[in-house]
Known about the structure:
By secondary structure, this protein is of the alpha/beta class. The chain folds into two domains: 1-383, Rossmann fold; 386-483, ANL, C-terminal domain (GMP Synthetase, Chain A, domain 3), CATH 3.30.300. It is 28% helix and 25% strand. A nine-stranded mixed sheet has the order 2-1-10-9-11-12-13-14-15, with helices on both faces. The N and C termini lie far apart (61 Å).
Amino acid sequence: MTANLYALLASRFAAAVDEVALETADGRVITYRELDAASARYASLLASLGLKQGDRVCAQVEKCADNVFLYLGCLRAGFVYLPLNTAYQEGEIRYFVGDAKPMAAFCAPAARGFEGVPHRLQLGAADGSAGTFRTVDSRPEDLACIVYTSGTTGRAKGAMVTHGNLTSNALALHQAWRFQPGDVLLHALPLFHVHGLFVALHTALLNASRILLLPRFETGPVMERLARSTVFMGVPTYYVRLLAEKSLDAAYCHAVRLFVSGSAPLLAETFSEFKRRTGHAILERYGMTETGMNTSNPYDGERRPGTVGFALPDIDVRVAQADGAALAQGEIGQIQVRGPNVMAGYWGMPERRADDFTADGYFRTGDLGRFDADGYLSIVGREKDLVISGGYNVYPKEIEMLIDEMQGVAESAAFGVPHPDFGEALAVAIVLEPGAALTEQQVIGYVKGRLANFKVPKRVVFVKELPRNAMGKVVKSALKASHSGA
Length: 486
């Protein structure tokens, strides 16, 4: 039996081929029968160009139905799909193309950086190709995608994601989040990131659900469609923007059974206010490019703010020292993950495996966390964000959570800057709520009365907004670069 992910998806919607698969923002309706034929056309087109199983196909395209068809066509033909952020510029694209060496690229006609790719195409190029295609046989270890990490701490690396990785994670999430007949997914996430491409798309397709496909998140179009949706997945910024709509209340969300948040930490304040306004407890989960989803707050049971819940089925998650030695409950350490969801490695970097994996097969995520007394996992930051001041470890998340409680603070980000005595000193960037006024000394005084002295910021800066990447994560390297000389 083939392990090709598309074969599994097709088996799930085989009995619903005349049901709606995609409904686009402009009202276009595409059935599962049409989706199957459209994906076959892209598979046929690429095969006709001489591409062979395992060849890479990169795509820097706007989110639309054809973007979905192209991705599925690559899966069923055994090509390795390489999604690229639409914001990437020529130099970045040139790096990805040089590293992955794709045989085909879907991009805008004027896009630069794709020179040297044998076949440059646009979405829609498959319209005249055959609408039938025999899905190739794939093994679980065969590559399905190469997804480049966001590169917030250095040069992006290509995570090699297999058919087995994607299949195991999709099935686990489908079960954990209780997908059911009649579910409708409101999809406003980008399709160049694992959240939108894998988490949202796969769970809905496994369920033969209708997907309301929006080109991007905009409050108005999302609000218009909530009454027809049962599942919504977003990043924390989406929920903040929805809360800015005065009309958002329980009645507005009466059809929705599940709101999911990920890709960046959800503030406890956002969680609480959303629950107060709508009656819904947002379900926060934890994943990354290299592993897909690892943990989730429970569907049934308490969804605890500030945590990412428990390990998903068949996935082992531990908090440990770098060598894998276990830490006691409540202690902060490396989050390490083992399971069928974990990538095969980084493209072209086999020498990294000894650094990225422990001797007993756990992937070192680079995240720091701790388990509470009830087994809920909390993320306290990235190892590379750890501030070592005067020999003491300072975890930025602890400082941020405290400062975010201050009246007038909308959000904060703690980071390290060079210091002549301590080696590194803690600095904090703060975004104030409209009309609020705080001083550096007020913030320092607030922290000083509540935490050990080595955790007290040496510098506080007030900014209009925090620098973020495409999925809403704060880019602390940009803060360090801007304020290291302050």
